[in-house]
Records
---
Amino acid sequence: MILASSMSGQAKPAANSDVTRATLDNGLRVVIVRDPLAPVATVEVNYLVGGNETPAGFPGMAHAQEHMAFRGCSGVTADQIAAIYAQLGGAGNADTQQNITQYYSTVPASDLDVALRINAACMQDIQDSQAEWATEKGAIEQEVARDLSNPTYKFITRLNEDMFSGTVYSHDALGTKDSFDATTGDMLKDFYKRWYAPNNAILVIAGDVEPAAVLAQVKEYFGKIEKKTLPARPEITLPPVKAESFTLDSNLPYLLAFVSYRTAGTDSPDFAAVQILSDVLGSQRADLYALVPQGKALETGFGLVEAYPKASVAFSAAALPADADAKPIIAEMRKIMSGYAANGVPAELVEAAKRKEIAGAEFRRNSIPGLAEAWSEAVAGEGRNSPDDDVEAMKKVTLEDVNRAAKKYLVDQESIAAELKPQPTGAPVSSRGFGGGEELTAAPTKAVELPPWAASKLLSLEKPPSESPSSDVTLPNGLRLIVRTEKITPTITVEGAVRNDPQMEAQPGKDGVSDVLDDLFSYGTQSLDRLAFQKALDDIAAEESAGTSFSLEVLKADFSRGIQLLADNELNPALPDEAFKVVQSQTAQYVAGRVKSPGYQTSRALKTALYPANDPSLRVATPQTVSSLTLDDVKQYYAKALRPDLTTIVVIGDITPEEARTAVEKWFGGWKASGAKPDVDLPGIPANKASAANVPDPSQLQDTVNLSETVGITRFDPDYYPLQMGNHVLGGGFYATRLYHDLRQETGYVYNVDVAMNAGKTRTVYTVTYACDPKNVSKARELIERDLIAMQHENVTDAELQQAKALLLRQIPLSESSVNGVAAGWLARAEIGLPLDEPSRAAQLYVVMKAPEVKAAFEKWIRPNEFVQIVRGPAPQ
């Protein structure tokens, strides 16, 4: 590792004045990155242990230990940990990779010391009791079943086995049911004692913090933890790759074809060149993407998917119609890669890739969690001094370096081909459903007494500040422009949306017209064809997309050119006839596969059970409707749906409101609306009736369960807020909330359970989702119904109400911890017609809300026995 300062316990100034580093006497390395974007901070504790270090026969040991850190640490119980993370805002989690285990949480900056103390408690000791593991084992096995039900995950797993046969890289960190069944609390404790140590960890803190004060807290909380003598790490000697091909079943609506290569690892001097090569091969100006406009693939891509110190995995991928033959496209991808290996890559694409990587480093600073992740990955995952090391290495990459890497790593004789082939599924089958018959009630979850150091901070509730725009104006053509000046980085982010609903606006028999239009935007403008338009974006290292939702990320110096290109694409799309024919055919083929897929069958079964027979939301594109479209149909839909008086643009970055308005008016000001505004609001809907259906999905090991019902309110109903408060009593705070406590902590039935209320302008749907073994579907539903009925019959406890308020209030600043988060929030509120400061207004309501208001709202609107239940997967037992 390069990071460590030789100064024990002393801060070492970095080249960047916003970065402070230190190494404590016990070996803990600390990186503090100041970023005043929002009043939040992200803490990531990176332990340098993962799937590589797991004992033979127990590939998920590091992953299991990660789970157990939430089941009790030094001086804090599992319930206290759950309550603390919930009241911090619920944004805490962890993940285990091949060579690191990361614990991360994003919290209000004023609560940073609480997050530091809880992490220090787990570095001091993790309980690893057999009793806690016996329950958590059920949840982690559900996580395994979930991932093994994902066809892309199964592909990566099989690919690693072939790429890295005989090494620790051949298995990932997830683990298996058999290994977890054989694991004990004592085994986990032994693993913890060997690897969890301050001298085997790197602590990264990013956000609106004062580095000197934070470093003092780190020393206080972590400084007395004793260092350990670490075990030897496994030797990794990679055997040659043997060329192979394989096919896996898939539940996706399209066929995926891959050609994979083993490339340079993060320790290799070739790694930077391979990153640039990957960008070049994935460019929309390169030969691989050209397969899309040629009509040979629905989509293509190239990327690094696994990056380990000794080697990485990269692959080219192509999406095809579900019933296509993958062999010709695999042969075509091999030919393209071999051509680049033999003849080299275009010099201008290398320079474009370098510009985008340099610009991307600036955009990473526009998210506090993203900044912490970037530093953790660079320093802990790759052993760099900072993320800038990767950027500086890529700046030095030459065309010769990239061509050498292409010749060295794109070796056809050492590649592995694979396809994920969709399997047909049966239509939904009605079932009797599960649960729904008894008036079950249960005592509320007992109150958790927080440690004094947490209680003193978390039990006080304050209305958080909410960011306001610098400007909010409506231009003469009706376009709404919202601007926020933010000078953290020399970048500008633009997010825009046109209020629309194809199910309300498309002519009868023209379903799918919006899908065809969306894909045609990538074919350039009336003045710049597809390649010329992409080159113009590459020249300024901009990322752009157009359509009813559109966006732009561009450096400050190039904002005027960027907004010109965005407007040209949005207002003057080329919509070429030849491209229309290709996109129409591709869309029809995709739709043909989609309607047979389990995902579509599940969604369709839910909608037909929830909504009346003639509801517009039941309109759906078919191969026939898409094939019947003409280019004139697309142009007419474009003219009807895209209009300035239904459009909102949000601009955030190093720009003044005046500068933003001048540029937007210059390029969007000539956009005029004609005719009456289309009706884009769905009609209201009546209450649904209870029903149940099963959708077979042979590829899934577990059942995915959706419980949904219509609710007779809209987003503007006053009862929206007490229902949201109740939802945060039920979920959103890990073990600390009722559903997680009952379905995960106590029974281990599920890995995740989510409760959500999708409240719109005219209709609302209430949903609870979970996944579990088929034998536990009805048991889990009974617990859900019990908890919902209890919400109607009894007031939530004072402790639950306080915790739900803390969750809701602290989530407000956390939602604004990135530029994109702020933009998305303002855009969503503008589209539905809410005030931009709605979170601040909601906070005022939440602070004074009483338990009887929550009970009354649940009693009035929620119908526990009237859910539509859709189960995807094996038949429930």
---
Amino acid sequence: MTNSRPLYETMDQALQPTADRGWVLIEDGYDPLRESSLESRFAISNGFLGVRGGRATTQGAGRIAPASTYVAGLFDTTGAARAVPALVPAPGWLNMRFFVGDRPLVPHPGDITTHHAALDMRRGLLLTEWLSPDPWELGVCMRTARLVSLSERAIGLQLVQLEMKSGDTEVTLRAVCEGLGAGMAHGALEQDLGVWRTRHSNMGLAMAAAASVEIDGVCAPPEPDGPFEWSWTWTARPGQVVGFVRFVAMGRAASQDPELGIKARTALKAAQSRGWRGVLADHERAWTERWRSSEVEVDGDPAAQTALRFALYHLNGAANPDDEHVSVGARALTGDDYLGHVFWDTEIYLLPFYSLTWPEAARALLMYRFNTLDAARAKAVRLGWRGALYAWESADTGAEASPEQVIAPDRQVVDILDGTQEQHISADVAYAVWQYWQVTGDEQFLLAAGAEILLETARFWASRAEPDADGFRHIRGVIGPDEYHQHIDDNAFTNVMARWNIRRGLDVAALMQARWPGRWTPLSSRLGLDDAELMAWREAADTIATGLDPKTGLYEQFSGYFGLEPIDLSAYAGRSVPMDVVLGRARTQGSQVIKQADVVALLGLLPEAFPGNAALKNFRYYEPRCGQGSSLSAAFHGLVAARLGDGEMALRYFRHTAAIDLTDTKAADAGGVHIAALGGLWMMTVFGFAGLSLHSDGVALDPCLPPGWTRLGFPLQWRGRRIRIAIDQIRNRLEATLEDGAAMTVVVAGARYSLQTGQPLSVPIGAPLPAVDRTLQPSENPS
């Protein structure tokens, strides 16, 4: 790391938020009902460490929960029968307590005169400011900053500046860590170092920390009070300024590592040698690079711009390109909902963003799936099939981590079938692998990992699709994306994705035989894959039932769906609970009400499966039947609406998705941000409004900006190239600039152009298409 001049000379400068307040989310005051949601929204993360945005200042008795810290990949179980792995909280390292004499300065967070929190998304910082309660007549103003370094992911940094406005009395500051090794076995616990191991998974965790205080620019020695506890006592006077700095370094090991504590101390000392200015400067440089590679710019709609910056802030903080043994959970590292488990969300909603803006992170996430491939093989065998069936919920090992039962909203114990029946996950993983290969051309990844994933998931589907006397193969007893309907047959999403997966398996086999026969021979031999099996795959793909009705052009979501009870969802507009709660589980399962995008999701992923006007027909049919019972759903509806030319409807879905984590109408984000919905905002923007599609020889764009958006700009990476796209709705022009890399083909509104460095492309685009007519014609309704 270069020892360049720090950006900030004083702590006061560092504690100032970015001048452009369009990059800063602000929250004032204290509302206990909203605190848990704000902790999720204002979380900081770097893909290895995640810290919720809770208040670091607690009362003397410590009854306020510490800001939760999570370490990616740190899972454990309770050891009970049928226990599932859960993300283990790491020690809370940010806590501070202030005393005037022997009494706490802040007995309750609501007693603070003012509290101002600012999430600086450009710099990856959480900044706070508050004044002490008036009864003390001390007038303490405290300003803080916290970060987890994007350049050195083991490191966390806390800065605190205290300004004494008035008073003349003895003050004590205590720096503490809470929850030390909670739920874990102790290995070592010293003043500045702790080493623990999880009780059942035997993972190792180490934390080293150091704290220092300067009073009027003079370093004050601490009083060690025990492991990770230091205190300073002094006489406060008006105008006095006190600076506090705390570094923390954490390490994780998959098994007991005798050097883990040494490594944490080494990382801590390196950070201390850089000083807080150097650590902050490195961190901000890393964020500057991430924004250069991913920032989406929207003119004409400030709310949409804020929503996209918020989404990209959390997406950039969720991944770690240096760790191929972890993935991004459903709430990333911002909360513990879903126990930190990984779902299809990562491959379908997040990988497109990473593949096209941060391919190193995308590769690491896909390597996690390769490193858990053996667990996927074991699951397939256990259920009676061949190949690889990935876990619906995955943790550290890739073994199925779905709970077998949960408590329903009506307090009934409900069996959970997702772990065995929601099998489209294997096709979802394959989809992400192929998309990454298409975007990057990463031959090393394909040969070392990607091809094997594609082949083993294709093998699963070929064995899973059962031949029948009707001449078709059927996939029975599954759950599609619409989880309101369970144990169904021939779910269109599952079957069409399975067919696609098998065909990509055949493609990669042919590609390796033609280009890398020396790699194909040992791989096919190790997998026991011969020409006869490949021929059987082709027959399987050609005969899988898809549910497509050639007369209407509609896909039946699953066998028998068209015969279910139709329900007019407009009669339930304004409801505050999902439709399965309104109707009850039994009636919901017997109805056409859909939890989330299912056929519409298929439309978004495989538009080529909808020739002619089939896309419009299927969207018209299924969009009104979806109850939007999942945070994942609106993104695909918005994406498809934009592709079909209805920018107004697409924008409504965009705003619906943005509101999930940016409004306080619900408490649904108390357990962490909805990272897949945030990925969906990027997908709607780039694949929907910009009309991006990926091809073997380049990219294509067919824009349809929504009302009010006068300009949209974003960067892309394509096979080692950096491209910048700008769509101007006022001038009706698209501009493409190749910033780095060899010449390539770009297709705009169906016309092909050559894009070269130093020669920006500027082409006219058509005016926005008229809105989609959502009225369903009688002939299109098979029910």
---
Amino acid sequence: MSAEPAATIPTRRHGKRKLADARGKWVHVRCNDSELATISAAAAQKGLASGAYLRSLALGSPGQRARRQPPAEREALARVLGLLGNYGGNLNQLAHVANASGKLPTEAALTEIAQHVRSIRDEVMRALGREG
């Protein structure tokens, strides 16, 4: 009777992937409240965490795995843009169902709603710096 080896179950990885050149060393910089505020504001303007911002100044690059932090207003605008996409999709589905059932709102009403959605979307895209 031949005994087959039991199939090995791959172990699951939890957490972040380990890097060969992981950043495990610290550089401590003392600064006052004003200096910290200036560093934090400059980092936020670049969309980086403070450490990544300082690394970019010292080394020329924030690093491959630097945490990019979009400004809060950009995050809010991106959420609004997503909601507008959903609203536009729902409007399209509404028009499709209305066409299928034969009970149509007036074409002028649908055109007006669609134009409002387009103009709001265009404004959000401009605010996000994504022209076109």
---
Amino acid sequence: MNDLRYALRTLARSPGFALAAVVTLAVGIGANAAVFSVVEKVLLRPLPFEGANRLFVIRETSARQDRMGVSGPDFDDFYAQARSFDAFAATVPHFTLTWTGDGEARTVNCAGVTKDIFPALGVRPLMGRVYTPEEYHVDGVQVVISRRFWKTQLGSDPNVLGRVLHLDGTAQTVIGVMPDVPDLFPDVDVWGKIVPELEFMHWRQNHFLTVIGRLKATASPAQAAQELTAILHRAGPESRELTATVAPLKAELVGDVRTQLMIVMGAVVLVLITGSMNVTCLLLARMSARASELAIRVTLGAGRARMLRQFVTENLLLLCLGSALGLILAGALVQLGARLDLGAVPRAQPIGINGPGLAFTVVIALVLSVALAWAPTSILDRLDLNSALKSGKSLAGRRRSYRALVVSEVCCAAVLLVAAGLLVRSFWLVQRVEPGFQIDHLLTAYVRTNAYTGTGAYFNNLLDRVSETPGVQGAAVSSCVPAARSATATVTFRDRVNDPANPVTVEACFTSPEFFTTLRTPLERGRFFTTHDDRHAPAVLIVNQAFARKYWPGEDPLGKQVAVSVLGTGRRMLGTIGFRNVVGVVGNMKQEPLDVPSSPVVYLSFHQDETNHVYAGLNLFVRTTADPRLASATVRDRIHSLNPDQPLEDMRTMDEVLGATLARRRLSLVLMGSFAGLALVLCAIGVYGTIAYSLSQRTREFGIRSAVGAARGDLVKMVMREGLWLSGMGVIIGLGFSLVVARAMEGLLFGIAATDPWTFVAAAATLMSVAAAACFTPAWKGSSVDPALAMRAE
């Protein structure tokens, strides 16, 4: 307690030092606490399921396509024959249904599951019950809802069991309420059933199921993968080229965000190290000025351990203040992260400074309190008791220590600047990617109808109503959202031999005739779809340039015949898949996000869908003359004048759609850029402070140099040369470490190499410029010393 009281009095006498140290530590500790809370929630915390470490995701791969889902027949074979698993369950993680009869019509988010999913996860109902095995053979009678839906949409109705919901035009009785499963199914409103009798469950090429299995304790993932692959190869020629993969469920959920988060965590650690070095410089300067106090303590019998205890106490007080302020800063950073689409990070919501985050902060404070005690105790090693007691002067610091700190600070800043520079260039290049259509003045929305009740006439009337809206230049519908998502399809060519075991897989979109003109995608050859391309006309097809160049290089694609099988949840066959004539070639419109390379795409007339499923839900695109946000209310009113029960969801501008696809990349850029900026500021402060303190210890030297004729410019050059030499050493070492970090970041880069020379040169130039500015001010001030005053002072 005596040590603590003395530490408080000492800090009160040096408010400038205390404020600088506390703020510097708060920045480093707060950033680390915020990022660690996210890392702990996403990467370290186990999944909240029974035996979560034995839950695995099963996928299928082929020579042509990686990471496919599992088809219905393959799942049935796994379920019946696999012996490596205690439980097997299939899911369709996301689809929508129309909810009417309870106020304004809207869509609800659904997940389709088989009967073993809840036992496999160890999830039990909050109220009521789940479906019985017999009920999985009957569709659209009972429904199980989520706690989230019960609370937000049904007002926590205590009599919810037995309540009737009208979903997709059918009355379904609520039989149970399930707890939320945010890690695996974050947005589920309704738990639907995967009914085995549905036709799309019997197409072996329809790889749309996500399969989860609980591995037996006696089996290994490698053994399970071999067993499942053998089952596939026994199924028939369509599956003999497939390979089953078994991956931990947690790793599957986290995906490539692990690398992203670990890089961000490394960045904040570097910020903390840089800040700690700044505080170390402050402590060295402060303890050098306390030479008389240290000498008196040693003379009175204080040993090294006793002195160390005092210094650790003083540091711990600083760190407690810094940690308290840092936690406030961490909370603000977490809130900022939420506004920057932290939801793009899986398992991140809800997020906050939790128990592990607080414990991590305490550990940092304790470790740093001991580590920072090195600075004052190093003074004891060279303390001259006689001179310190006689003169009361400050003790000159060891210049080698200061030089090492400057080099280390610049090194850390160089690593962060290179990493941030690579992300900045990648983001800039992504935004310059040509999407193949005009983004501005384009409004989008999702139009969901009752499944299989939507008709071509309905959508024709809807497009007519929207097109007649004042300020609207055109309207169209499509099953895909350009630059965001699309369906996949297998294609069969008339003009060549096709391998059934290795079908060609491409992206596919059903569109209305006005789609390309509304989005302003150029026609390269042939024609667009017309209103005559309906179910009674010959089936036609439009391909993009990438498709034509890949499959008909040097040939005229017009007139070629291709059969297209667009598979997926809910699709039904009305007949055999026939060949379609290619009538047009359009430019390469991006169907996946901008940072994904363009791939072959086929476009089909939405009136020629053999599966009769496309009318269940389509994406609306509206081209406006002014800001599309201003037209959203008018467009909604126009559609409701046609059908008051028509839900319109996810109404956004195309700029917002593209922004959402780049949310994770933007989050990395903002975080890394912010941390790099902090490190640069701390580095500049550290270099300035170190040079200034070094010059304050060399007053007599500068006085002598001036007295014997040294010009002021010569003194400035000498100091600048020393400071820039140290900074240059730090830059060189930092660039070496940056090569390693950049290699680890390759998965986050776009359009540039990890060794991009321009980024490295720009980072080095920025650091050297900042170091030069930080050196010049104290050098100019120190060189103005009066020789007579300097000699008299010494």
